[in-house]
Amino acid sequence: MSLYPVASRAAVSFTEDGEVPGGGLTVAFRLQDMVSPLRNGRPVGDGCRSALVIGGTARIRTGEVTVFCKVVAVAPARVRRDGRVQAQGSPAEHATLGPAEEWLDRQAGPGVIDQVAERAMLRKQFVKGERKRLLTRAFMIRVIVLMTLMPDADVREAVIALAGDLAMVPWARAWVPASARACGDWRNALGPGPLEELRDIVLRASWAGHEDRDWRAAVAGRRRPLKVSSLDGTLIRVPDTPANRAAFGSVGTGDDSSPFPQVRALLLTDASTRALLGMPYGPAGTGKSAAEQKLLATAMEQ
Question: Of 16, 20, 44, 49, which is least packed with CB atoms within 10 Å of its CB?
Fold first, then answer.
C-alpha cells in the first residue's frame, strides 16, 4: 500500500488561536477511510454529537471517491469514554466577519475586534459573569456589526448567521444560539464605547487608504484647493422603548405616536470616494432644517 510520507512538521501553520490562514482550507481524504470513532464501531447517528475520523492515510488515486471538507475550526479535542470525538470551546471563540474582518485586519493590524473587546468593560448590572459558551465580548461586537448588514434580521438571526458552519461542529458542551434577551443584556453591558472605538478605527483605516490611492479626488478652489465633501440628513428607526422615545422622539405625528422613535443623523462623506467621514446624530426634532443645522454645528465643533 502506498502511503503519504509524514513530514517532520505540520503541512499548514496555524495561528495561536487555531485560525486557518487565508480564511479557509480544504482537506481531501478517501471516503473509505472515514470511520466511526465510537466503541465497537457503532455508526455515528443523529444526536450522537461526534465527529467522524480518518482511519487510513493511503494515497488518493485518480477515480477514487474522495471527500472534500472545508475546515471551519481548529480546536482541542475532547474524547469521551464511548469514543466520541468532540471539540472544546464554542462558536463564540471562533466566529469572524469573514472578508470584512480580513480587510480591517489588513488595514489596521491583526485582531482589531478582539483588541477592542479586551479593552471593553462590561456593566455588571446587565451581565454578572462571562458565559464564554454562548456569548463573549468580541462575539457580541461582531453580532452588532453584522446587524447593520442584515437590517431585516433580529439579533438572534444575526447570531445564527455569524456562527454559520460552526454551529454544526460537535462541541463538547452543546451550543445553541443565545436568546434575544441574553443578547440584549450583553449589548447593554457593552454600551456604545466599544462600537464607537471600532467605528473610529474603520474610519481611520478607510481614510488612510483613500489618502494613498485617491487619484480621482474632487477638489474645489485654485489658490487653496480643498477636497470636496458632501452631507445629507436621514432618519433611522430605533427600537420602541420609553428611553428611546424620551431621548430621540419621532416625526410625522404631532403627538409623538409614530410607530418607532427616530434618530436624526447627518452623514458626512467624501465626494469622490463616498467614504463615510463621520455621522453626528441626535433627536429627530420637529423641523428637518433646524435639526440638521444643529448636527452640522456639532460636527464643526468636533
Answer: 16
Are 12 and 32 in contact, with CB atoms under 8 Å apart? no
Backbone φ and ψ for 193, nearest 5 degrees, come out as -55, -55
Query: The whole model's pTM is what?
Result: 0.68
162 has pLDDT over 90:
yes
Which phi-psi region, left, alpha or beta, contains residue 226 (left: φ > 0; alpha: ψ -120 to 50)? Answer: beta
Question: In the prediction, which pLDDT does 259 show?
Answer: 84
Apex CA 281: angle with CA 275 and CA 286, to 5°? 130
Contact 186, 205 (CB under 8 A): no
Nearest-angstrom CA–CA distance, 165 and 91: 9
Indicate if the alpha-carbon torsion angle 84, 90, 94, 96 is positive or negative.
Answer: positive
Q: Which residue has the cell 478582539?
A: 114
Other C-beta atoms closer than 10 Å to the C-beta of 250 total 22
Say which residue the cell 455508526 belongs to. Answer: 43
Are the beta carbons of 141 and 95 closer than 8 angstroms?
no
Q: How far apart are CA 39 and CA 30, in angstroms?
A: 22
Distance (Å) of CA 104 to CA 101, 250, 259, 297: 5, 35, 36, 31
Distance of alpha carbon 171 from its chain centroid, rounded? 20
5: Cα within 13 Å, side-chain hemisphere: 3
The pLDDT value given to residue 214: 55
Contact 97, 145 (CB under 8 A): yes
Q: Please state, rounded to an integer, the average pLDDT across all residues of the chain.
A: 82
